[in-house]
Amino acid sequence: MIDATHDPELRSWVASANDAQTDFPIQNLPFGSFRRRGTEEPHRIGVAIGDQVLDLRLASECAAWPEDVARALAPLAAGDLNAFMAMGQKTRADLRRALSAALAEGSTQQRTLRECLVPQADAVMALPCRIGDYTDFYISVHHATTIGKQFRPDNPLLPNYKWVPIGYHGRASSIQPSGQAFHRPMGQIKTPDTDAPELGPSGRLDYELEMGIIVAASNSQGQPVPIGHAEEHVFGLTLFNDWSARDIQGWEYQPLGPFLSKNFASTLSPWIVTMEALAPFRCAFSRPEGDPQPLPYLDSRENREAGAIDVQLEVWIQTEAMRHAGHAGDLLSMSNLADAYWNVAQLVAHHTVNGCNLNPGDLLGTGTLSGPKPEQAASLMELTANGKQPLKLSNGEERRFLNDGDSIILRGYCQRAGQRRIGFGECRGTVLPARDSHFV
After folding, report:
1. Residues labelled catalytic
2. Which CATH superfamily is domain 134-432 in?
3. Is the pTM of this model over 0.90?
4. How large is the average pLDDT for residues 359-386?
């Protein structure tokens, strides 16, 4: 999958794309949906390049493209990323090569395409695609173990964890794009010292650092996707914050799992970094010595050799007081997707092994991506030992769980010697007070 588009020496005529710290060099070219600030125009599909967005509707109309590239651009020009994703891996790889050549220094299309650029500062981002279904997994053994110890100190991992990728079906309608705020959720809460639950706002609101896997090609109902073809059904990855109300969750989650504690809001980053862009950052995938090996439908030589992806992840908090003081926020933790116990191909293979049909735009969440060290915990429930050990922030504030006005910012990037650093942008969401309710 490595080709000329990954050449670390490749430079763009878009000057900001050549900045060593940009998330969006020419080696990345992620897809997103946007419209110009201050307009009511329909959302359109663009590709991030430096601090700009290449408007693919304008690019398809203004520039001369070979016939096959023009066909690939047609659904993107219509604002339909889902339809483009359904065209398959070869089509998106071919378009990537065409866009890379067009945006590279010395391109004959520079003069035409320059008029198709929109500053990212002037772009209002939406969800990058239509999300029809959403499944959340639980692929970090470190997160599962830490949470399990809080409830089952002598047996933190349930017997099935190392055999089957655990997941549940979430709510797609409440997934929102980065930058939006949401209200603190209401729900039933029961404390250990009360005889009955009460309805009220969550007092133990948390974030979860996750990545989102965006499905590309569909499979027919009843037709499983073999692990060797699983990544052909994946378009790319995003950052994902699955906000969680821990007090609501603790009361409701048995026997059927999360419900109102999870479905009130989830935040998705605006740019999908394609699997092609991630190719230079693949790494070996293995299990710790002594752990059971995956069943055959979850295993292949190729998956063992390069099934993991090295994505460095960060969680930042900016409280309301920090925002008013012009403080950019505090780094809470860092972790890496490569430390997960299950990987992208395995999730697709398992999701479909029973005949479940996935569709373009479906979202698979990884679950909370905590690392092996305590400081790599990817939720406040872990970092504060379920609120027992408050975090001291740089401005003197403390947090056990999230306060109204807090913003959580997720960031992610890939970097490796001999390769160009690429990033995911940011995934930001802000907590608003609970809405007044006549039920309370």
Report:
1. 143
2. Fumarylacetoacetase-like, C-terminal domain (3.90.850.10)
3. yes
4. 97
